[in-house]
Amino acid sequence: MAKTAGKKSVTRTGKASAKAPRRARQSAAKAAPPASQRVDFFKLVPKPRFVGKPVKRKEDVRLITGAGHYVDDLRLADMLHVEILRSPHAHARIVSMEVEEARKASGVVGVFAYKEISSLCGDVPLAHPGIPDLKVPHHPVLADGEVNFVGEPAAAVVAESRYAARDAVDLIRVEYEPLPAVVDPEKALAPDAPKVHKELADNLSFSWEVKGGDLDEAFKKADRIIQQRVRSQRLIPCALETRGVIAQYLTGEEQLTVWTSTQIPHILRTQLSGMLKLPESKVRVVAPEVGGGFGSKLNVYAEEGLLSALARLVAPRPVKWIETRRENMAATTHGRDQIGELSIAACADGTVLGVKHDCIADIGAYHQLFTAIIPTLTGLMLAGSYRFPAARTTLKGVFTNKMPTDAYRGAGRPEATFIIERIMDLVAAEFNLDPVEVRRKNFARKFPFSTPTGLAYDTGDYEKALNQALKLADYQGRRARQAKARDEGRLVGIGLSTYVEICSMGPSKGMAAGGWESATVRVSPTGSVEVLTGTCAHGQGQETVFAQITADVLGIEMDQVKVQRGDTGNVPWGVGTFGSRATAVGGTAVFEAARRVLEKMKKVAAAALGASAAQAARVQIKNGKFWAGKKSLSFAEVAFQAHRGLVIPEGETPGLEATYFFEPGNFTFPFGAHICQVEVDRDTGEVSIQGYWAVDDCGKPMNPLLIDGQVHGGIAQGLGQALYEEAVYDESGQLLTGTLMDYAVPKATHMPWLHCERTETPTDVNPLGVKGVGEAGTIGSTPAIVNAVIDALRPLGIKHLDMPLRPEKVWRAIKKAAAAP
Amino acid sequence: MIEFKGSHIISRSRQELWPILQDPAVLKRCIPGCEELVLNGEHLYDVRLKVGFGMIKGSFQGTVQLTNMVEPERYVLNIKAEGRTGFAHGTTRIQLLPHPSPAATEIRFESHLQVGGMIASVGARLCQGAARMLAEQFFRELEKCLRN
Amino acid sequence: MPMPRSTPSLSKKLAISVTVNGGEVRREVEPRLLLLHFLRDELGLTGTHCGCETSICGACTVFLDGRAVKSCTLLAAQADRRQITTIEGLAAPAHQPGSSGKLHPVQEGFWECHGLQCGFCTPGMIISAAQLLERAPNPSEEEIRRGLEGNLCRCTGYQHIVEAVRYAARKLGGG
């Protein structure tokens, strides 16, 4: 995720000032790479055969036949199995732990607790967010005398089989002394609140602020100040594949290999090297097939360090741990969990002048990789697609005895979008205006656009997307029919959101781990093409998209291209797949590497064909052949010549491969308009979605089929947050939504038919013109759905409800409204 | 947190009931799923229970201690139990109230139990109902005991 | 729960004989061994996935005597003398040497319509969709959604899956 708060951390413009760290300020014009020196994809390939087409995915055949290999599908010789004893308490001191019985159990190789592991593996790390005075507690991979959330690892059993390991876990006797648990983040800030970490002064991990513009002026000029408290509830990412790790240490070779279900193999390798005190050269991380992540595998987990340490203890036997779903719900990072107090300065004509946002983020018991950074993104994106001149977010990150929060699809932006899109509707309701008109009134229209929070939006046309969505949804007709339905006493509501988000993370000055991406394009002597990418797809379809790009650049078939990812053993350093960055940043790296290979192939072809200097300057590829004058060589022949080494052109070396590290000059800012119609059942409070229309703009589309897939899936997760999902802890810190029986992931029957269209506003940040689309659906949908439900309830005088809008909550609100005088 | 309360009328006087409710043999028979219950100190019992909450079944080991005893009116059960599927600890207040009909007692109970582990994350929805059911079972068995 | 616990009375192994993807296999298994783990660990058929251990997500769905069942909540012993078809046996994979190169129409539909992203739910989803089409050769959108209610997908939002099933229905001659 973007490092947002450090020195030189964010591309900013304008008069913004952040109280906490000083920021790099740069004009939007400077942020974009100089377009003059750049070769754009569509200039090089004016008529692409693959890019822009709804190409079927290359990765699918193995997946639809059950032949793909996720971590749990890998079997190594002599493999041992690990099961983990986890805390049943939200907060407790470990008085004693008896492991002898477990150690003696059949099939058990060893039982390990903190004291056996601590010398081999250090604390779980975090990406330094650059927030001064950030309090970071000791976060061991196995509990060090104290447990701080339900599900925290306390001991590990290594055994010959998974069943034997599981049996032995039950034989470990732990005496816990329960300590008072801190569950409510607001109560956690009270001076007399119990402390999550006894070594820290209180439960406040950090404070942070971002502001810009003249707030006093805005609030002075406003016709009305609207106050509202909004909450983005805690969510559980629930990737269908749980986490899993296999680790093996070969003593002779001094080589640790870790197979793990991750979105960031390279970052993980660097961090593991630090935790284990092994140089990176001795650590190889492999992400095999990854069954979904949504941010929850954008992390460095205790279990990844633990398994690596165990692998060294039982070397050379490999150890394997596969997370159960219950463990996944309790001990894989959660998302969202922010409470915002809003003050909105608004004029009677719907113009918003300024917004104050005081946010409390419940970060759980520890810092995971990007825990502190996620809520800062909410503050940065608070302006949304609007041009109000003044904004301020104050943020308090608070420890509680719960699983840490971190990135979950959208990561900070769904919260910001929910806030600003609710604000637009609150303003519309306050002055009895059409929410569409309020949005039009406030839209940013000139690009690059500088926000009061210091970002520079690259390109956009918010009104165009809105107009297309209104047409697609027949908004006018729908409003007329809604009026009729209301006359009949029906609770019909129409909601919209006109979001903008921050994507293609990102420029390195905004990213703790660097924001570039790498790619290698390598052609073998027989002309087969390998693309190695530092991104790490887990469902997005980058194998397909990167093959599309490469095949178009090199003038070959997609079948000739094999895209490899996820193995630090063969991929040059990479950053990973998250923040809708893979195509915009990683795809650009592929394009640039392929372009360099192409240039070299042209030179080799010219040399091999004995072309004149004039002909050499104009080598063309036609029908898969390189033409210099009237002579031609096939793609494979050129590849062979490059390796044969006899006709290497002046100034070149043999071989045929190029590696490119692409550094984007700025983030990209995709946008769109989502419209939703719902009807609420007055008697049961149940919300039924009657229609959903989305117009998204992700810049130049690379593969429309895959874009639709991303948008649909995103909307499903946004709908889940709006209507169903919530991680619930009871007052003693017990997780009550510990299985998929209790945590409501949307099913096929919960989803309406989604009518999706696109506008195309290319970005100038990269030569593909791509902005990113992985999170758009999630960001756009939640507020559209909630706005629709609140619109339906407006005749009852209901102005706001917190998510999720489950029937019981809506029903209670309806009853309460009916009982009100 | 499981909180539940209720009452039950037993056709015995308070004075008669008081020792019965502390008799390990009786308790072992009446407590649903009780496999072992032995007196291990003053008003302190070691117990082993096998209980099922819906799909979660497990065996629990722990102690029950009686405190705040005011014969024959009231006492408090302090419960601490742990098992593979989680833990439960908390208190149950027991009140023995005279009933209008002679030689009968109204037993009122009020429980505050904190549960954790799998029983909390999987069985939370079922706990309240299950606890109530277990209490009913206890009194049914107690009546059976008294009849014999 | 994920792994049934061992008890002394259940530690004696049972001999079972199961027909899996057309071939008979005989094994001695612990009585507590889940069918899912039997398929994956004993037989190496890792296309059947474990997503929730509580028969909610459906990633472990296989055919047992022609009926789609969730293998995470069945014991291997319960499959004794019965027929199982897993994703690997639904059609011969195109990329395996010597195979007929054919996909089952439902598999084809998932490929054509981008009915999968991470692919983890996909084998179970395909088995359930195949079952659905056996029961209702020309299903409406609502019937498809209801028919797949026992299978969770976190990636696709289900719309392309609905289209994939419609594609397969047409291909099978129902639609």
Summarize the SSE layout with pairings.
The complex is a heterotrimer of chains A (821), B (148) and C (175).
Chain A: H1 28-31, H2 41-44, H3 60-64, E1 80-86, E2 92-98, H4 100-104, E3 108-112, H5 114-117, E4 146-147, E5 153-159, H6 162-169, E6 173-178, H7 185-188, E7 204-212, H8 215-221, E8 224-235, E9 244-250, E10 255-260, H9 265-276, E11 283-286, H10 302-313, E12 319-322, H11 325-331, E13 335-346, E14 352-364, H12 373-380, E15 390-399, H13 413-431, H14 435-442, E16 449-450, E17 456-457, H15 462-473, H16 475-487, E18 491-500, E19 517-523, E20 529-533, H17 542-554, E21 561-565, H18 582-608, H19 613-616, E22 620-622, E23 625-628, E24 631-634, H20 635-644, E25 657-662, E26 671-680, E27 687-697, H21 704-724, E28 754-758, H22 776-793, H23 807-819
Parallel strand pairs in A: 1-12, 10-11, 14-15, 20-21, 27-28
Antiparallel strand pairs in A: 1-5, 2-4, 2-6, 3-5, 7-15, 8-13, 9-10, 9-12, 13-14, 16-17, 18-26, 19-20, 19-25, 22-23, 23-24, 26-27
Helix pairs in contact in A: 12-13, 13-14, 13-22, 17-18, 18-20, 21-22
Chain B: E1 2-10, H1 14-20, H2 24-30, E2 34-39, E3 44-53, E4 56-70, E5 74-83, E6 86-98, E7 105-116, H3 118-121, H4 124-147
Antiparallel strand pairs in B: 1-7, 2-3, 3-4, 4-5, 5-6, 6-7
Helix pairs in contact in B: 2-4
Chain C: E1 14-20, E2 23-29, H1 35-42, E3 61-64, E4 67-70, E5 83-85, H2 87-90, H3 105-112, H4 122-135, H5 141-147, H6 159-171
Parallel strand pairs in C: 1-5
Antiparallel strand pairs in C: 1-2, 3-4, 3-5
Helix pairs in contact in C: 3-6
Descriptive account of the structure:
The complex is a heterotrimer of chains A (821), B (148) and C (175). Chain A has three domains: 45-67 and 516-662, Aldehyde oxidase/xanthine dehydrogenase, molybdopterin binding domain (Aldehyde Oxidoreductase, domain 4); 71-179 and 242-290 and 297-331, Alpha-Beta Complex (Aldehyde Oxidoreductase, domain 3); 410-506 and 666-815, 2-Layer Sandwich (Aldehyde Oxidoreductase, domain 4), CATH 3.30.365. In chain A, the strands form seven sheets. In chain A, strands 3-5-1-12-9-10-11 form a seven-stranded mixed sheet. Chain A has 23 helices and 28 strands. Chain A has 821 residues and is an alpha+beta fold. Chain B is α+β, with helices and mostly antiparallel strands and 148 residues long. A seven-stranded antiparallel sheet of chain B has the order 1-7-6-5-4-3-2. In chain B, a hairpin with a 4-residue loop joins strand 2 (34-39) and strand 3 (44-53). The longest helix of chain B is centred in the last third of the chain and has 24 residues, at 124-147. The radius of gyration of chain B is 15 Å and the shape is globular. The model of chain B has no long low-confidence stretch (mean pLDDT 86). Chain C is an alpha+beta fold and 175 residues long. Chain C folds into two domains: 8-90, Beta-grasp domain (Ubiquitin-like (UB roll)), CATH 3.10.20.30; 105-171, Orthogonal Bundle (DNA polymerase, domain 1). In chain C, 31% of the residues lie in helices and 14% in strands. Chain C contains six helices and five strands. Chain C has helices spanning 35-42, 87-90, 105-112, 122-135, 141-147, 159-171, and strands spanning 14-20, 23-29, 61-64, 67-70, 83-85. In chain C, a hairpin with a 2-residue loop joins strand 1 and strand 2. The model of chain C is unreliable at 93-99 (pLDDT under 50). The interface between A and C is large, with 62 and 66 residues.
